[in-house]
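Support request, priority: normal
Reporter: lab tech (M.K.)
Component: structure prediction queue

Hi team, I submitted a job for Radical SAM protein from Rhodopirellula islandica yesterday, and the status page still shows it as pending. I've pasted the exact input below so you can check whether something in the sequence is tripping the parser. The sequence length should be 374 residues. Please let me know if I need to resubmit or if it's stuck on your end.
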Amino acid sequence: MKSPSEQSSPDRSATPALDSAIVLDHSRLAWQAEGARFNAFGKSLRRRHGGRIQRVSIDAGFTCPNVDGAVTTGGCNFCDNRSFSPSRRVRLQRVADQLSEQIGRVQKRYNDVRGYIAYFQPATNTYAPIEQLREIFDLALHSDDRIVGLAVGTRPDCVPDSVLDLLQELAVDHDVSLEFGMQTVHDESLEWMNRAHTHADMINAIDRSRGRGFECCSHIILGVPREDHAMMMESAVEIGRLGFDAIKLHNLYSVRGTPLGEEVLAGKIQMMKREDYVRTVVDFLERIPPEVIVERVSGDAPPNYLIEPKWCADKQNIRREIEAEFDRRDSRQGDHFVPPEVPPMQRPRPDDATPESIRNRIDTRGRLPVLKMQ
Ligand code: SF4
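Reply from support: The job had stalled in the queue. We restarted it manually and it finished. Here are the results:
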């Protein structure tokens, strides 16, 4: 998932499988020279690795402190967390088998893949005893010579310093990306989502993560009820203020079996309209720094789960419409970015504010029996 920001990434020339092939991106604004409207992820990876890099998604069997009661129960209102129950996870394949199966599938589709990034995607992928995290990340990195890195999805309140130290160590030789579910800067929206963390948790996490040699990526949701345009733009400004390396933008969408899905089916909540979303994404990208890598510009779900909005299944055209809106305005990512008074790299590193209930799960001995180890 990660293309560490060219600003904070270590020299990747030591990456084992591809050392002779890596082409480092010496220009932070190479995408502009190519005439693009924004700093798209796929091309950024190609520039850095000299060829196509594909992510392969892994469900390692993690759960979430927002589901198991460490911070609350029930999970986020948009998340289908029923699939996190141990009984369902027992049926998951081992990590190495998931990787080899998916790599085989990607190879059938593309014949020019130079490397893969193992993407720990569902649930909270830093929520396990630290030695077991090391074991499972090592397993993914060494299960195939073509794996060049890791992407790890997590929550802002689930990265104690021990986890950041581990990722920093792994990032010396590999691409490592830490994906935070920031979602919004507005605590009332986080509360509406039942996130059970605040934006202050996000600030604490990024201020301890920045500058460690791995990429920090922020997931943002646009179209949260009661967030107007100005509020969404406040989230955009925060990307530059806090110094994220990358972002993933999602429209709020609802799927079956979730509290949000039930409210949408009952007609209590309206999803954002397609044209509004396209314009808002462009407004958002105009306000973030030009060097931030844009990993995603919309979100979707499998058709049999997706309730609303149906338009988000049309991903390729949504992206084309976003590019067309940039063309219409003749603008680019970063055109309205205002650098913060305190540059992110000068922000002080705070004490670790990870809640004790989460730290007890991570900074402890023991193992999560449901994780899909060898
Ligand atoms: S924090 Fe992530 S994994 Fe946990 S319930 Fe929310 S969306 Fe799902």
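Residues 1-27 have pLDDT under 50 and may be disordered. Residues 95-109 form the longest helix (15 residues). Let us know if anything else looks off. Ticket resolved.
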